[in-house]
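Quick one:
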Amino acid sequence: MSFRASLLTLYPQMFPGPLSVSLAGRALERGDWSLETVQIRDFATDRHRSVDDTPAGGGAGMVLKADVLARAIDHASPEGDARPRLLMSPRGAPLTQERVRALAKGEGVVIVCGRFEGVDQRVIDGRDLEEVSVGDYVLSGGEPAAIVMLDAIVRLLPGVMGNAHSGQSESFENDLLEYPQYTKPQVFEARPIPDVLLSGNHAEIDRWRREQAEALTMRRRPDLRERKKNLQKG
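Output:
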């Protein structure tokens, strides 16, 4: 059974977008995963097809209405659908490689792309939406964030990457950033490829790469190393 992604959005024309090319696009063509878009506005009941209203208590902007979004979710994810329901939101838990890996092992995802000032909290609670963030910044909507998350998930699906081991040494695996990479020419602008990578000694190459990954992580993302230490203590 292929991985099924259902996207609830006010802008279905944004999909598949970048997901139609490269690894994700080829996997989509092969049927390794499927993508369904659901237009939230189709579930509005008034003649203006309204999906938002002013925030209770006052304030700037508009809020996505609970009743409209709930109907859209119930259509995309009826009772018995075991897929997690995710809401792309800047206040959500940060998306990690560990979470991506877990999602890739499942049947699929239902993703709600928020807009405006946010989503009525009652539909978040009532439909058990898990809020997910792709970074500490605010986008105009959840669609770009959904594309980022799906790209990260799809590449981990079985058969999508040509080499089954190619993801094991990437950044964030084992709480490390990836080591530096090199290829031909052997010398570029007086900068040579490190001798160890040309030595043919795979044990030495593995050790060098590990040392480089650890040093790079300590310089740029020491929080990853601290997280690993805390996990080991726990």
